[in-house]
Amino acid sequence: MTIMLDEAPSATREHVSLPAGARLLSIDRLRGLVIIVMALDHVRDFFDADALRFDPTDLDRTYPALFLTRFVTHFCAPTFTFLAGVSAYLHALSLEDRGESARFLWTRGLWLILLDIFIVSPVWTVGSGAIELGTLWAIGCGMIALSALVSLPTRAVLAIGAAILLLHNLFDSVHAAQLGEFAPLWNVLHEKGPLPFGLSGQVYYPVLPWIGVIALGYGLAPIFLWPHERRMRAFVALGLAFLAGFAALRFAGVYGDARLWLTYPDGARTALSFLNVSKYPPSLHYALVTLGVGLLLLPALERAGGAVGRVLATFGRVPLFAYVLHLYVILVAALIVALAKGVDLKGLESGGQPPENYGLGLAGAYVMWMLIIAAIYPACVWFAGVKRRRRDWWLSYL
Prior knowledge:
Oligomer: single chain
Structural class: mainly alpha
Mean pLDDT: 90
Order of helices and strands: HHHHHEHHHEEHHHHHHH
């Protein structure tokens, strides 16, 4: 059965197969948007000195433009992870059996973890040798966990993902420092902290809630195969339900996020406090608001056409390639700017404070963001063409 790129017939896992190379444009466009917005966050990390001086979500030090620049990029990691679950389901439709799907998931998951350790971490630690386990680590662990779940009915995987997201905040009061020799395991699962085995670095993305996000994406993936109008209604209904759940829980302030919102003398700061949800690990509030917006974007992106739709789809067809490429372009650009300004970079790789002449400020970071996105686009067009023309097995890992 051939499925059009922008529309899929109603189907179940047992009765539909996607032909090799077929893609759903709404997924590619949403991935592409995530890549572009994610680049803004990463450019800010390297070109705005405030990113090194304090947490942009620290309401005692931040300002609205900086906070909102950080907040909008919160949508990237959960959307990426959710779509990884969706894509795992859709990819499995073209495979012979669920065993083959499981093998693909755990090998790709391991590959992403290795990439995060050996290719991505050196960017963030500027070659210091430390390891920062972030987005690719979380998605990779999620894929490995999903490889053990694909033998279950899709609704069971959905229930497991939802249960993890709904319940993991029950463990917010459990801290690694209380667990003795099991502390490193808790840092891997639920609380950001140092790497196990005495390794230099940190686990920035504890994996338990991210497993919930990828399982949720897998469980909701059949919706992407519904007829167009039914699919659009489902995305809007789910997105609104997620946002309503976020608003209700956030107002109540009794469960779902260790960081409660506070009332400030000025309304703007109170509003920022309401939006100031926890990412490390991603709280229930964080998951609801970010995934809710992502689901609402899908109908609009499915209708997107012209140059905007084409650019988004191009980035979305090569997300891993774009992710790694943009990090190295950002690093090289930041080093060039630092050398041109005579900045002493000594100590920055170990968390030291930046000198006064470091970076270009937030406005300069926005300019560099646009320039870097434009710079990597031709390479993404080329690689998207390679993936479209060729069917080499290794291309499915990139």
